[in-house]
Amino acid sequence: MARLNDEQREHILADYHIGKSQNELAKKYEVSPATINKLCKGVIPRHVEKVNELTRIKTELSEESEYQVNAIHKEVDERTKHIQFFNAASYKVTKSALAKIEADPDLGMADLRHASEIVSKQREGILGKMPDTAIQINNQQSFTMIETVVVAHKAVNDDIEG
Q1: Cβ distance 33 to 20 under 8 Å?
Q2: Handedness of CA 12, 14, 15, 21 (dihedral sign)
Q3: CB-count burial class (<10 Å; 0-12, 13-18, 19+) for 97
Q4: What is the DSSP string of 68-136?
Q5: How many whole angstroms separate alpha carbon 96 and alpha carbon 105?
Q6: pTM above 0.85, yes or no
Q7: What are the counts of helices (DSSP H) followed by strands (DSSP E) for the chain?
Q8: Whose CA is closest to 108, among 118, 117, 98?
Q9: Which residues 6+ apart lie within 8 Å of 17 measured at CB?
Q10: Are 36 and 1 in contact (CB under 8 A)?
Q11: Domain spans of the chain?
Q12: Where are the alpha helices (DSSP H) in 18-65?
C-alpha cells in the first residue's frame, strides 16, 4: 500500500463513506486501486443515504423563495442546537449519576431518576413529545427495572463538561 499520511486516509475514508467508488478515489488521490482497496477493505459506507436525503431536500428547496429557505435553515439550526444541548445534558447527568453509584452503590438511584426526569421534561417542553416517548408511555409495565448503562461519548461540548 502506498504511504498515506493520517490526513489522506481520513479524506479517502470520508469520501468512501459518502459513496465514492474505489476507482474514483484512486484517481482523485492519485494512488493505485489496490491501495484504496486495502484501506477500504471491510469498511461499510455509512453516509450514502444521508447524502441522498440531503440532495433530495436541497433540490426541493431550490424551488422555494430565498426567504422560505432562510426560515427553514434558521429553524433547523435552532432545533439542532436544542437537541445537541439536551443530548449533552443527558450525557452529563448519566456520567454524574454513574460516578455517584460507583462511589456508593446504595446512593444515587433517586438522584439519577430525578435528574433524568428534569432533563426529559425540559426536552419535552422545548422539543415536544417524541414519538418513541409516547409509545413507551403507552406500553409502560407495572414493574420497575433498574439497569446500569455505560455510555461512551468521544466528544462532548467543552462548555457542557465545565
Answers
A1: no
A2: positive
A3: buried
A4: HHHHHHHHHHHHHHHHHHHHHHHHHHHHHHHHHHHH-TTSSHHHHHHHHHHHHHHHHHHH---HHHHHH
A5: 13
A6: no
A7: 8, 0
A8: 98
A9: 43, 45, 46, 47, 48
A10: no
A11: 1-63, 78-161
A12: 22-29, 33-40, 48-61
And the C-alpha cell for 97?
Answer: 449519576
Q: Which cell numbers in the block locate residue 34?
A: 489496490
Task: In whole angstroms, give the CA distance from residue 120 to residue 137.
Answer: 13
Cell triple for residue 137?
408511555
Tens-binned pLDDT, residue by residue, of the chain (162 aa): 568 899 999 999 999 999 999 999 999 999 999 999 999 999 999 999 999 999 999 999 999 999 999 999 999 999 899 888 888 887 787 777 667 767 776 665 676 677 667 767 766 766 677 665 544 555 554 444 455 544 444 444 444 444
